[in-house]
Amino acid sequence: MSLTVESVQAQEEACILPSFDSNVAWELGSIIREYCSNNFTRPAVVYIAHANSSQLLFFATSGPGTLPDNMHWVKRKEAVVLRWGVSTMRMRLTREESGKSTQQSLQDKFEMADPSIYALHGGGFPVKVKGVEGIVGVIVISGLAQEDDHAVIVEGIQEYLARQS
Fold first, then answer.
1. CA atoms of 98 and 70, how far apart (whole Å)
2. pLDDT tens, 82-121?
3. Distance separating alpha carbons of residues 91 and 153, to the nearest angstrom
4. How far apart are CA 81 and CA 150, in angstroms?
5. Taking a C-beta distance cutoff of 8 angstroms, is the pair 37, 43 a contact?
6. Comparing C-alpha atoms, which of 151, 130, 147 is closest to residue 24?
7. Taking Cα atoms as reference points, which of 31, 88, 86, 23 lies closest to residue 57?
8. What 8-state DSSP symbol labels residue 116?
9. 20-48 per-position pLDDT tens digit
10. Could you give the CA distance from residue 39 to residue 36 in angstroms, rounded to a whole number?
11. What is the DSSP code (8-state) at residue 122?
């Protein structure tokens, strides 16, 4: 499936949770980690934190072989979600519509040129709760191709929601 701004926005809207706390973060993180372990040979970092304090709620790797650089990617993806309240994939696709590189588009639109702060690569996702304004948490995956980083989060949330029904 080819992702568009509209399709990613629809995914975000379909992934709104009924509640969110450390137990939900643990269950979501465990589902996502297992999905990564079972479906990819490359290891990934799974990171879930509160949005208001960046308090870490879940952190694991899907297998051996992740690098310190993965945490650099995690923090840059997290920064995008916290600043704009949307997934990194949605922000990337939105910025690509300008026809410029994502970095140049950030520079032109927001006067930001430092790529060490924000990463417009799939794999950062807002945690939203029904009836609560704004985001309450952030899920980040780092280590797979950016489309896969994004997809495993969506798959994980959908699996979690299916288990709740």
1. 28
2. 999 999 999 999 887 777 676 777 777 776 667 778 888 9
3. 16
4. 13
5. no
6. 130
7. 23
8. T
9. 999 999 999 999 999 999 999 999 999 99
10. 5
11. S
